[in-house]
Amino acid sequence: MIGRLQAALREGDLEGRSSLISVFLLSLSVYISGFSLVICSLALMITVYFTKGRSLKTVTAFAPFYVLIMISGFFFDIGYAVKVTIAFATLLSVGTLIYSSKIEEIAGALIFFRFPKKLVSTIQLAVSIFPLLVNDLKEISEVIDARGLEYYKKILKAFVSTSILRALSISEALFSKNFNYNPIYEIRSPKRKDITLLLLSLLLFLSTVPLNLLDLHSSDIYPPFFQ
Question: Transmembrane region positions (predicted)?
Answer without folding.
Answer: 20-46, 58-76, 195-214
